[in-house]
Design goal:
single chain
């Protein structure tokens, strides 16, 4: 029972941390998604810079539309984080029971994280698709969750699932880069240090800095897939397309989106919005971990208090 409570505590604190960080950074996320979803047509584009999205919301009097789809995004963020942390804890416990040890190796840890990420992607993909469509809709014209999900075939709710599964490799890339940077840095310090000196370890600031660099590197490597995923899940602005007299609608498939970006924007088009993605990813990860660490202790304390109360109540009921 203690192990199950620990898993629930980890899952709950992670989900709440994700929810709060998502809410705080949501306007930036909305601007980023709309900027990524747009593709230039005959050399013309609505948003030349990320700030153009923000100023459009202000000039049109739709500042609150920067939060369109926030409820769905928070629901998706909370559910996906809970499923991920619980799946990770569950798979880790199964692995430890199988090998008869409480410690696991790096490769096993990465495989467990990938398995948890895959489970999360499959179970929460409809919410992810709906939140992306609501974010990329015209300001003030976003539809509700149910209407967004029921538009078209049910299979459309799983748009971008293949890329979502591919992006579960992001943590593995991040850890590999982090480990290489850490090893190189420690080797250089060991070469300068005396043989009789104490073991060399990374400072908290240096660990945070290497973590940010490795996360940014993983984002750069996987960014073309991230932008393709946003474009596949983006809302269809049919009226806007008619106004621009598009000759042909972009096919919402991976080959179709790749071809459209390559033909209309070139190689650099695959990295459109990269700076905003890195900023949002690094800030979100930092906020999530910070909030999660603070909430974990409180959540565990509440769980222990509730369990103690239940045991006391149970004892009183049994007493004559």
């Amino acid at each position: 029972m203690g192990v199950d409570l620990e898993s629930i505590s980890e899952a709950t604190s992670g989900a709440i941390g994700s929810l709060l960080s998502t809410t705080i950074l949501y306007p930036l996320d909305t601007c980023k998604s709309k900027f990524q979803a747009e593709i230039s047509v005959r050399g013309q584009q609505k948003y030349r810079y990320l700030s153009d999205v923000f100023w459009e919301a202000i000039s049109s009097g739709n500042v609150l539309s920067l939060y369109q789809g926030l409820g769905t995004k928070n629901l998706q963020s909370f559910v996906s984080s809970f499923i991920y942390f619980y799946s990770y804890s569950y798979f880790k416990r199964l692995h430890c029971e199988r090998i008869g040890s409480k410690s696991i190796g790096t490769k096993a840890n990465l495989l467990i994280a990938a398995a948890a990420g895959a489970c999360t992607s499959v179970l929460t993909q409809p919410l992810d698709t709906a939140s992306s469509r609501m974010q990329t809709s015209e300001f003030g014209k976003a539809k509700g969750l149910w209407k967004t999900l029921t538009e078209g075939a049910w299979g459309n709710a799983f748009d971008g699932l293949g890329i979502s599964l591919l992006l579960t490799s992001n943590p593995a890339i991040q850890y590999t880069v982090f480990d290489q940077l850490k090893q190189n840095l420690l080797e250089k310090r060991m070469a300068k240090a005396n043989k009789d000196s104490s073991p060399i370890v990374l400072s908290a600031f240096m660990a945070f800095l290497l973590g940010a660099v490795s996360k940014s590197a993983a984002t750069v490597i996987t960014y073309p897939a991230i932008r393709c995923k946003v474009m596949i899940q983006a809302a269809d602005d049919s009226k806007d397309n008619e106004a621009k007299k598009l000759p042909k609608r972009i096919r919402k498939t991976i080959p179709g989106v790749i071809y459209a970006i390559w033909k209309k924007e070139g190689v650099l088009g695959f990295f459109k919005g990269l700076q905003a993605q890195i900023l949002k990813t690094v800030l979100s990860s930092a906020l999530l971990l910070m909030i999660k660490e603070k909430i974990t202790a409180t959540t565990w304390f509440l769980i222990l208090a509730i369990r103690k109360t239940l045991f006391v109540t149970k004892g009183r009921l049994k007493s004559p």
